[in-house]
Known about the structure:
Helix content: 55-70%
Radius of gyration: 21 Å
Distance between the termini: 39 Å
Strand content: under 5%
Number of helices: 9
Shape: globular
Mean pLDDT: 81
Amino acid sequence: xxxxxxxxxxxxxxxxxxxxxxxxxxxxxxxxxxxxxxxxxxxxxxxxxxxxxxxxxxxxxxxxxxxxxxxxxxxxxxxxxxxxxxxxxxxxxxxxxxxxxxxxxxxxxxxxxxxxxxxxxxxxxxxxxxxxxxxxxxxxxxxxxxxxxxxxxxxxxxxxxxxxxxxxxxxxxxxxxxxxxxxxxxxxxxxxxxxxxxxxxxxxxxxxxxxxxxxxxxxxxxxxxxxxxxxxxxxxxxxxxxxxxxxxxx
Length: 250
């Protein structure tokens, strides 16, 4: 039996086939990467040194400013303490820092965004950003240096993806195309060797390349505490945001 419709060529039939899901990146992921790149480009190519420093002062997260441990905190905008626990994620130290986060966002944000949908994804990402700086603040309460970068969000997304995209104990391959896979228990996720390898690679990459804390007000150390806080939140709290959490592994 001829699978083609009358008058339809084989090429036309192939063109109508849907693209593989792995290459169908959700719009919210592309939008976030575009916003990150635009913000960084404006800071680098449009703003002068003084204006760029002002942006860093107002929109980066500075834990020490919540206790007024430095007089420079008095130059921040009135609402900076409210929005900076979220806005810091849109700032990056350099193009390499942004590029690394963009790659990990594509890898782990894609399956999570497909599974949660845009609204839940944004809520989950925002909570992950907040969890990242919360963990950082607990260990660095008096530090007056800007924390910047989307690594807290990416870490939360990776933690969330570890609960379903790798499967349970029996599965060893990361499968971003299967956003509908059942959520697995914390024990089963940690028993998957691939999960542990991806966690190790992620943190090692950030330690080698990242610049999570730095800029005009501080040094160039990596904010590993924010990464850890984001990942732990995503890994443990993913079920609270997951619309498919009622589906269980048999």
